Amino acid sequence: MPLGNILSGSEQQYVANKDDKTATWRILDTWHEDLKKLQDAEEEIPDDSEAVKVLSEGQFIALIKEAARLGVLANANFGSEESDLEPELIKKDEEINTLQEKISKLKQENSQVLESTSRTDEYALKEKAMSSILKLVSMQDMSNLGKD
């Protein structure tokens, strides 16, 4: 079976390849009729074939910039079926939210445990006594100010 027939049956119609030596990009239309003449993978496809488009580095960059400006790149599908992954992504997002809620609750419980363990009953009684003494002293000062 000729290689061209195999290529014409592939899912991906266009393949781009950069040639660093000549600073050019070659875009191959794998479904083009010219490729049906190919017999094996080692056979070269000439640049003047209608199945090949050759772009200079500058032309390629201009093309990409224009595609980005038009928003075409933002919507491009580069072979991964994102729609197939959507249910999995939603499931993982829900799992992340659940775990974040659990972390928040655990942090809150942890702070309550630390607060309760760092203060003994004796400390709480002393704290109340000091608060009462401060109130009495404040009341005494207020009454002394009123007498003057």
Descriptive overview:
This protein folds into 2 domains: 3-70, no CATH class; 86-147. It is built from 4 helices and 3 strands, in the order αβββααα. It has helices spanning 3-8, 57-70, 82-118, 121-147, and strands spanning 14-19, 24-29, 52-56.
Characteristic key phrases:
three-stranded antiparallel beta sheet, 4 helices, single chain, 11% strand, 148 residues
Outline the fold blueprint:
Elements: H1 3-8, E1 14-19, E2 24-29, E3 52-56, H2 57-70, H3 82-118, H4 121-147
Antiparallel strand pairs: 1-2, 2-3
Q: Brief description of this entry?
A:
With 148 residues, the chain is mainly alpha-helical. Helices cover 57% and strands 11% of the residues.
